[in-house]
Amino acid sequence: MSHEFGAELRRRRVHADISLNEMARRLNFSKGYLSKIENGRQPPTEQLARLADAELGANGKLAALVQRTGPDQPNGPDTEFTHPGRREVLAFGSSLFLPLGITEADAEMAAEDPQTRLYYRDQFDRLRKRGQQSAPGLVLRTVAIEYCTLVELAEAAPHPQGRATFEILAARYAEYAGWMAQEAGDNQASMAWTRQSAKLAASAGDQAISAYALVREAELAMYARDATRTISLAQQAQHHVGADPRVKALAAHREAQGHAMLNNGHECRAALDRAETLLGNGVHDGPGGSPLGSTTVKDLNLAVSGWCTFDLGRPKQAAELLERALSRTAPTARRARAMYGARLALAYEATSDLDRMCEVASQVIAIAQPIGSATARTELRRLTRAMARRHNYRPAKQLHVEITAALFGFPVS
């Protein structure tokens, strides 16, 4: 791979009449390092391949020579995850020494009371806000317990409409549990919760949540660096019978990110344009009350565009887009700020703006540590690998120590 990529890089560079010194300047790499790449004496990084591909207008052909052929981690087995019946719920509660069991009469009465439904809708909104600022494991515990109670209430509801109402609410809780499990770093549990959400929604006759579950699976594939699966799932979501404009827009974002990983610039931009059009009507309530997907980033299309632009080898433009997106994101949206902030630090490293890289990365560490964001940690790991070539820049050395401490949970002095 090293020899093939190096030879093709040199061929395209010479054809474009760009000297090795000028190419190194444009890519923010040293001339000696680039020479080793071209001679096959140094394996190319994925980041360098994307930057060179964009600079030489190779339309993904150069980057494809170092493209990952599969996911970084397996998606896990397609485990059946059916929602528990009353016995399973009670057994689950007993195992935690929690009084989850309620009498059938009390469950039926609660299911009939409109205030019960209002409580769980409001509680869901509170948990989503808490999830932006607390460790995912803490939030997941509450979500799981509330989910089990909702399943009991659905079974106790005397009328089909009441049962469907509680099943939809339980599906929303299950979907959010999947996101918290992902943020906790347990992708297999995340997949199980996500699929459980789709099953509950289908049982209640709601297709929108089932369509959104495909968006979430596409996101899991994206973080596993499986671009082909990301695109496939995102396209399935867009064609799902229950996909409303918002779900289609969120699916288009995942498709764009998948195309960006493959350096398919034209397809990526087309998906982003579709998402922007679909989001033009604003954010509306979803099944059970709250909108599906993230609502903490005010201009979600701008943030995802910045994310994709970095993967397409345009770090300077990516930094500009991400800065604008974060400036419109509330300080309380800590999880979103950590995730996109880590990507912003990567963009500044690629442009050799190391002072700003250190500043942004330090902010991300301060945010990501207390909330335990696995997605932010993934981006920070990429940053440590990219920073390996910055060994002569003293602040970068200290930052490397701080990131390593954050990744392994040690306090940063």
UniProtKB/TrEMBL annotation:
Domain HTH cro/C1-type: 9-54
Record Gene3D superfamilies: lambda repressor-like DNA-binding domains (1.10.260.40), Tetratricopeptide repeat domain (1.25.40.10)
Stored SUPFAM superfamilies: lambda repressor-like DNA-binding domains (SSF47413)
TM regions (residue ranges): none
Pfam annotation, one family: HTH_31
InterPro entries: Cro/C1-type_HTH, Lambda_DNA-bd_dom_sf, TPR-like_helical_dom_sf
Name of this protein: Helix-turn-helix domain-containing protein
